[in-house]
Design goal:
It contains three helices and two strands; from the N terminus they run ααββα. Strands 1-2 form a two-stranded antiparallel ribbon. Strand 1 and strand 2 form a beta hairpin. The longest helix is centred in the C-terminal third of the chain and has 11 residues. The radius of gyration is 12 Å and the shape is globular.
Protein backbone atom coordinates (compact mmCIF):
# COMPACT_ATOMS: atom_id res chain seq x y z
CA UNK A 1 0.00 0.00 0.00
CA UNK A 2 2.85 2.41 0.77
CA UNK A 3 4.32 1.83 -2.71
CA UNK A 4 0.93 2.59 -4.30
CA UNK A 5 0.65 5.83 -2.34
CA UNK A 6 4.20 6.79 -3.35
CA UNK A 7 3.55 6.23 -7.05
CA UNK A 8 0.22 8.07 -6.86
CA UNK A 9 1.98 11.04 -5.28
CA UNK A 10 4.73 11.00 -7.92
CA UNK A 11 2.06 11.13 -10.66
CA UNK A 12 0.27 13.99 -8.92
CA UNK A 13 -2.85 11.90 -8.34
CA UNK A 14 -5.05 13.89 -5.96
CA UNK A 15 -7.94 11.46 -5.93
CA UNK A 16 -8.63 8.26 -4.04
CA UNK A 17 -7.28 4.98 -5.36
CA UNK A 18 -8.34 1.44 -4.57
CA UNK A 19 -6.37 -1.76 -4.08
CA UNK A 20 -8.63 -4.73 -4.89
CA UNK A 21 -6.48 -7.48 -3.37
CA UNK A 22 -9.29 -10.05 -3.24
CA UNK A 23 -10.41 -9.17 -6.82
CA UNK A 24 -14.03 -8.67 -5.74
CA UNK A 25 -14.43 -5.38 -7.63
CA UNK A 26 -12.49 -6.77 -10.60
CA UNK A 27 -15.12 -9.51 -10.87
CA UNK A 28 -17.99 -7.04 -10.61
CA UNK A 29 -16.47 -4.85 -13.34
CA UNK A 30 -15.58 -7.86 -15.52
CA UNK A 31 -11.95 -6.72 -15.72
CA UNK A 32 -10.34 -8.32 -18.76
CA UNK A 33 -6.66 -7.85 -17.88
CA UNK A 34 -4.15 -6.37 -15.50
CA UNK A 35 -2.97 -3.79 -14.85
CA UNK A 36 -6.28 -2.03 -15.29
CA UNK A 37 -7.13 1.62 -14.80
CA UNK A 38 -10.75 2.61 -14.21
CA UNK A 39 -11.87 6.17 -13.58
CA UNK A 40 -15.28 6.96 -12.08
CA UNK A 41 -16.95 10.33 -11.83
CA UNK A 42 -18.48 11.66 -8.61
CA UNK A 43 -21.73 9.81 -9.33
CA UNK A 44 -19.95 6.47 -9.68
CA UNK A 45 -20.21 6.32 -13.48
CA UNK A 46 -17.24 4.70 -15.24
CA UNK A 47 -15.90 7.49 -17.45
CA UNK A 48 -12.68 5.80 -18.61
CA UNK A 49 -10.91 2.46 -18.52
CA UNK A 50 -7.66 1.19 -19.93
CA UNK A 51 -5.86 -2.13 -19.79
CA UNK A 52 -2.11 -2.00 -19.48
CA UNK A 53 -0.04 1.09 -18.90
CA UNK A 54 3.37 1.96 -20.31
CA UNK A 55 5.67 4.96 -20.30
CA UNK A 56 4.26 6.27 -23.59
CA UNK A 57 0.82 6.58 -21.93
CA UNK A 58 2.01 8.86 -19.12
CA UNK A 59 1.67 12.20 -20.93
CA UNK A 60 -1.85 11.50 -22.22
CA UNK A 61 -2.98 10.08 -18.87
CA UNK A 62 -1.70 13.11 -16.97
CA UNK A 63 -3.62 15.38 -19.36
CA UNK A 64 -6.79 13.33 -18.93
CA UNK A 65 -6.38 13.36 -15.13
CA UNK A 66 -6.12 17.14 -15.20
CA UNK A 67 -9.31 17.33 -17.28
CA UNK A 68 -11.15 14.93 -14.95
CA UNK A 69 -10.34 17.06 -11.93
CA UNK A 70 -12.27 20.01 -13.38
Amino acid sequence: VDEIKKVASEFGMKYDSLLDSDLKLAGELAVEGQPALFVFDRTGKNIYHQYGVNAEDAHDLLKKMSDWEK
